[in-house]
Design goal:
The chain is of the alpha+beta class and about 220 residues long. The protein has one domain. Helix content is about 15%, strand content about 30%. The chain has three helices and 14 strands. Strands 4, 5, 6, 7, 10, 11, 12 and 13 form an eight-stranded antiparallel beta sheet that branches. Strand 8 and strand 9 form a beta hairpin. Helix 2 runs antiparallel to helix 3. The longest helix is centred in the middle third of the chain and has 19 residues. It is globular.
Length: about 220
């Protein structure tokens, strides 16, 4: 299962890194790397009429364009930092992961496995966990909690056919598509496939049973307004 952190570093079983949430990539237009990517982006379909916003993309290799491996498009309330409580708003985030074969790592020191639905499940699961660390814990205990929960998310993502997941069919570009789905006290996570890409999603306060996905025809809709 090959995934990368939003900071650009490779995530491995021994060094899991939770995705950054609620962050803007400096003063640059955050949509630019989305426009330069070599695969289609997915978000909630036209049934969603609320706010849309982008996360910074994730790159597993040097450079722009084909170097972009995944990105996340948010819908609803944007999770903010610093984290204060488990009541962090109502949102759904769609994670699009490029289909990549096995390849050399960005620093040319190792080999990355091909991306899979498990990659999308890991990014979605760790993304959800990153939005809800318990605010009453001090910094060291919060990090321990994050490490524990992201480790669990990794293990679950590697076993999509296991008892931790159930089947859920949702529309993708208007056609029914099977997904693997799970709920927790923090929200829900799902993962599957779509034409040209792998899809993950996570959310809270918005029912996963009532959403649909579609190729984003105009990325300027994700201007954060």
């Amino acid at each position: 299962m090959d995934v990368t952190s939003r900071a650009g570093g490779t995530v491995a079983p021994g060094g899991r890194t939770a995705p950054v949430v609620g962050a803007r990539a400096g003063s640059a237009d955050p949509l630019t790397p989305y426009l330069e990517a070599d695969f289609p982006w997915y978000g909630l379909d036209e049934g969603w009429t609320g706010r849309r916003w982008p996360f910074p993309v994730g790159a597993g290799r040097a450079g722009q364009g084909a170097g972009t491996d995944y990105g996340s498009l948010g819908h609803g309330d944007e999770p903010a930092r610093p984290y204060g409580s488990r009541e962090a708003g109502r949102f759904a985030v769609v994670v699009t992961v490029a289909r990549r074969p096995g390849r050399r790592s960005a620093d040319n020191t190792g080999t990355l496995e091909a991306t899979s639905a498990s990659s999308a499940a890991w990014l979605a699961g760790s993304g959800l966990i990153a939005t809800v660390p318990p605010g009453q814990l001090d910094r060291s205990l919060r990090q321990d909690w994050l490490d524990q929960q992201t480790g669990l998310a990794w293990d679950l993502a590697d076993d999509l056919e296991g008892p931790g997941w159930s089947a859920l069919t949702l529309p993708v570009n208007g056609l029914p598509q099977p997904f693997r789905y799970r709920e927790s006290e923090y929200g829900w996570v799902l993962a599957g496939e779509a034409p040209g890409v792998l899809l993950g999603a996570y959310g809270r306060g918005i029912s996963a049973y009532g959403i649909g996905f579609g190729v984003v025809p105009d990325l300027t809709a994700y201007n954060g307004r």
